[in-house]
Amino acid sequence: MKKFFKSILFLLISLQVYGQIDDIENLMTRRFISCPDIIYNVSWLIPEYHKKGNKDTLQAVINYWEERCGKTEELLRCKIILSIEEGFFSEGLYENNILKLVRAYERSNTIHGDKNVQWNHYSSFRFNDYAYRLNRYTVELSQTLLETKERSAIETFFLRIYANDFEKGFQMLDSDELDGTKIKELYMLEKKKREQTVFFHNDWMFGVWIPQGNLEVLGIHPFIGYRGGIKYKKLTTDIALGLKFVKSPNTYKVYTDGELWDTDHFLGGYIGLDAGLEMFRLKSNSIDLIGGIAFDGFDTLNEDVESSKSINSLNLNIGLGYKYHFKKQNFSQRYIGVDFKYNFVNYKNPNGTNLDGNVFTVNLVIGNVISNLFSYY
Questions:
Q1: Is pTM beyond 0.70 here?
Q2: Mind listing the pLDDT tens digit for each residue in 101-119?
Q3: Beta strand 259-263 with 267-282: parallel, antiparallel or unpaired?
């Protein structure tokens, strides 16, 4: 009986607590609408009221969005496109961060099949269908406005960007079409700042070491190397490390410790300072004058007595390099290219095989240039 009364008491207390929770929930009458909630709704409302031609409500939606969330990339994009459509576009619509916002749109606009998936300034908020819906609306509207009538250069720039024709859009910044505009002035300031910036540079080299003259006895050898350093304006300077390997196709004579012996062993190294100067660039292609100074050499091995000798030389080299630069992504720009170098060496092998001659090298180069200023481009 005692347990029965305890159970009844516990049940009454529980009912009272749950009743209080219901009462508290009834007090929760104030609402907070977050910016993700707002953009979810405007992704439906803006296309709907635009299609209906209800300009007053459309403007009210945009004003509400701006008041609650500020000048986000998505909001500014809609305002620019709609102002062009209505014929009252002005560069006063945006501030000095416009290029950063435009390039953020380009980076985030990654197409996967028929879906547009992006990260926007709401850091942790993941946009899917409704981000795609808003983007599809701005892309289609921009394409339509480009086709319906001739536009001013600045209007054409934004419509090309928001129609996802990024290549033609950004090409306008390097032409004289936008001279006299605020966005061109901002672009030139960024370009000047970029030219004064030091970037980190690195690349991998995969190629062949081709001896000339008497040095031909050593044969052609594969070469692998790494370079790392800095790029300032058109000049690149790197510390370079390399390795050449594979046995010689011919035996050669080496003299050491009073003994002359034959070997086909070959394992060489390269450590030095490389430099490159960009001489010419056309769009994604560039030609560089390249050269360097290094400590160069290779090891020989007497397998009979397990002794070895290093044959070394100063290496002075000069040549040309070609690079194809891929599209910039976030903070880096990758490239692939080919280096052609003539290496002046003087390998000393007294009392052994004459190794007079120089070396021609050809390398496939894969690398990148890294800096946070690439967020401008």
A1: no
A2: 998 898 887 544 344 444 4
A3: unpaired
